[in-house]
Amino acid sequence: MSSLQGYVDRRVLLILQDGRAIVGVMAGFDQKSNVVLSDSKERVYSMEEGVEEIPLGLYLVKGDMIILIGELDETLDKAVDLATIRAEPIPPIRY
Amino acid sequence: MLIFSVFKTLTDQQVTVELKNDLSITGVLKSVDQFLNIRLDNITVLDEARHPHMMAVKNCFIRGSVVRYVQLPAEHVDTQLLEDATRREAQNQIKR
Asked: GO molecular function of the protein, one example (chain A) (predicted)?
């Protein structure tokens, strides 16, 4: 899974099997796509209020929990006012 | 292995990947590996108004095991060749 190399030291968005979204700086990964994130925060989406960011710090996420890794465009991401965004949480994976 | 090869021939084509959480992501296929993990560039999420989560994401890595469908560009798939290759592989399996 050499294709994760380009994401190291970049701010990334992880989407997990249960629908959680975590942003953080990718500190490292291994061949099972386990990922270490530094300065990570969970983004909790809801229709009732804006996006809530919960600081998590240094996190190790097991590869088999991850469904998607996206590179965040930091200027684009900073331009978004999370407090104004209302959205359904990402649905969990159903096999 | 056959499907892996098919995906490799489709790099740099526009595909739509539907995930098992009903999210559909369109983008340019950049690479694929033996687990059918997919890397997409220049992505857009279907129904972006409902799914603003990935607004600031331009390229992504998708785990192969959570992909439900991949919509391929029909003009870039040689179905005749694929059919022949599939039959050949099936024949080889019988011999073994």
From this structure: mRNA binding
Test B61 with A3 for CB contact under 8 angstroms.
yes
| Count: domains in chain B | 1
| Chain A: closest CA distance from residue B30 (Å) | 10
Spatial separation of the C-alpha atoms in residues B57 and A10, rounded to whole Å: 12
Cα–Cα dist B68/B10, whole Å: 18
CATH number where B12 lies: 2.30.30.100
Enclosing domain of residue B85: 2-95
Per-residue pLDDT of chain A (95 residues; tens, 9 = 90+): 457 999 999 999 999 999 999 999 999 999 899 999 999 999 999 999 999 999 999 999 999 999 999 999 999 999 999 999 999 999 999 87
The complex's ipTM works out to 0.91
The pTM assigned to this predicted structure is 0.92
| Chain A closest-CA separation from residue B44 CA (Å) | 12
In 3D space, the residue among A14, A25, A13 whose CA is nearest the CA of residue A62 turns out to be: A14
